[in-house]
Amino acid sequence: MPLFAELRRGCSVAPARAALDRVLRDEVRHRDFGWLLLDWLLAAPFGPRVAELVARELPAMLENLRTTYAPGWIDGQRSLPAEDRAWGLMPGARYAAILARSIERDHLRASGARHRAKIA
Question: Which pLDDT score is estimated for 112?
């Protein structure tokens, strides 16, 4: 969500801002549903297999997220014209940094805490 909040912060073009407003509202529900589902799966009788699957697959899934949405070449993009920011865009380097922080804080910590609680 920090990524969409940052995109919205610089956005002044009405249709783009409305779209980002909607994404921000919906994203809270999507995030909560995802964690609720994972908690349910981990608590189910097959939870240990889910935990193994998450432990095995999550690193590659998050790396795919990084390389898809923030490939290395965008790190050099440090600025954008004001008219691009008005449409809710941001420089690639900023996008990559926020995505990396979000993956670390929102995905790795939360999934790790759930995994540790399940195996403890």
Answer: 65
Kind plus residue range of the DSSP H or E element containing 4: helix 2-9
The domains of the chain are located at 2-119
Q: Which residues in the chain show pLDDT less than 70?
A: 109-120
E-state strands within the chain: none
Which of helix, strand or coil describes residue 109? helix
Token digits for 79?
């600025």
Q: What is the pLDDT of residue 118?
A: 54
Which residue's structure tokens are 């189910």? Answer: 44
**Tokens found for residue 22:** 């909607």
Q: What is the pLDDT of residue 120?
A: 46
Residue 88 zone, left/alpha/beta (φ > 0; ψ -120 to 50; rest): left
